Amino acid sequence: MRRAVRAASLVVVLSCTPAFAENPSLLQKYGDWSAYGTASNPKVCFAVAQPKDISPKNVKRGPIYFYVSAWPDDKVANEVSVKMGYPFKPGATVTVNVGSDKFELFTKEEGAFVEKPETETALIEAMRKAPNMTVDGVSARGTKTSDTYSLSGAGDALDRIAKECGSTG
Q1: 1 pLDDT exceeds 50?
Q2: Class assignment of domain 2-165?
């Protein structure tokens, strides 16, 4: 559950609240991914992308993002979180498909998170090798969604946040 708290903190960082002395700034764009970082404490770096395709297209949703974050003060690297743009029912799961690999994420409010660090490592490794990934979920209202992300530039963005936040990518 601590992962969900950190991921929620990332949303706070992105919302530019005064809880953080400095807002994240774009480090560089790599293909369809962007790397961001903060210069002050708490130091946070993240790679982020939005889906290239969403299905169904006629469903109203909030912003949709896939994040990989680094929190050096907590000795955390490659923490995966997904903002799906809709709330989930309690206990719902999300499936991330990368090549032939499937990963199940737990949900909290509008986010999906990986429970075990070793699963995050496997997911990151799969992302570095594949051209795209899909993220499938079901909203609290029962609407099934499938978002397709390009992984073009993901590896470079992950390398950049590792460099900026002193973690391994």
Answers
A1: no
A2: mainly beta
